[in-house]
Write a structure and sequence with these properties.
Oligomer: single chain
Shape: elongated
Helix content: 10-25%
Distance between the termini: 13 Å
Number of strands: 6
Strand content: 35-45%
Length: 147
């Protein structure tokens, strides 16, 4: 049976980020938060993307590359976007530091890194400003077959 690393990576991210962000009171969830996100919220998108290949010559090995998406969203009633944008930037720095501090994600992968960031701005129906970021965390893993 094919066992991809992506679900374990999502679990690792959820646990690691919950620990890292607890001190600043930002909730972290795996999947979109039921009932909607808090005024400031981080969640690991339940979907993932992964590619793999098997090598059978010179020893059986499977190589997997993929990515997980972490979303950061801040909402506030403010005159311009800078307060929510700055709050998101603070959290993005903590997410990047968490991944950089353990680039093997607890020995799940050979290497993981933050590879892209996309920011978006919006206004809610209640006239609150929102700023959100999608962070792509890419990884590369090798598995020796039978191990």
């Amino acid at each position: 049976m094919l066992e991809l690393r992506a679900p374990a990576i999502q679990d690792w991210l959820a646990e690691k980020l919950a620990d890292e962000l607890a001190d600043i009171g930002v909730p972290v969830s795996l999947g979109y938060p039921i009932g909607g996100p808090d005024a400031c919220h981080v969640w690991i998108v339940g979907a993932f993307e992964a590619d793999f290949s098997r090598r059978t010559s010179g020893g059986a090995m499977r190589e997997e590359t993929g990515s997980a998406t972490v979303k950061v969203l801040a909402t506030s009633r403010c005159d311009d976007v800078s307060p929510v944008r700055d709050r998101v930037a603070e959290i993005v720095d903590l997410v990047e530091a968490a991944v950089s501090s353990d680039p093997t994600m607890g020995d799940l992968v050979h290497r993981a890194e933050l590879t892209s960031v996309k920011g978006t701005e919006g206004v809610t129906k209640d006239v609150e400003r929102q700023f959100g970021v999608d962070l792509s965390i890419s990884y590369h893993a090798f598995t020796t077959e039978g191990a």
